[in-house]
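Fold it.
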Amino acid sequence: MYERKTPLAIDCGIHLTKEVLNGKWKPALLRAISMDIKRPSEILRLFPDATRRVLNVQLKELEGHGMVNKKTYPQLPPKVEYSLTEIGWSLMPIIDAMNQWGDANRSFLETVVKNAPKITETSKSSCQIYRHLNMERKIG
């Protein structure tokens, strides 16, 4: 288990928010759950570049932070579904704003990211998946 080497600065809202969203997949997980993707297997299919273990760890952290609820149904095999809590829903405008800002500054950010060391492109980004899901919602 990870042990923090330096204490968390809780005097600043930015640090607190960053602590909750700290993790490669957490904002994307919250967004997926907000779009009614509840089952771990569905979430795993959305993010093929993420391992099951990493997603489970980050979902557990989000649950520990009170952002998501985990409901386990008493059946065989066990069925698990995630949903956003009220405080989790309150994060969605922030995540949506981050997404809009990234889209609005795409050309600049792509240049910066491509020139940065140790950053690679993935096969299918979560944003491509969101756009696909949003299109399905608008059509359906």
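Residues 86-104 form the longest helix (19 residues).
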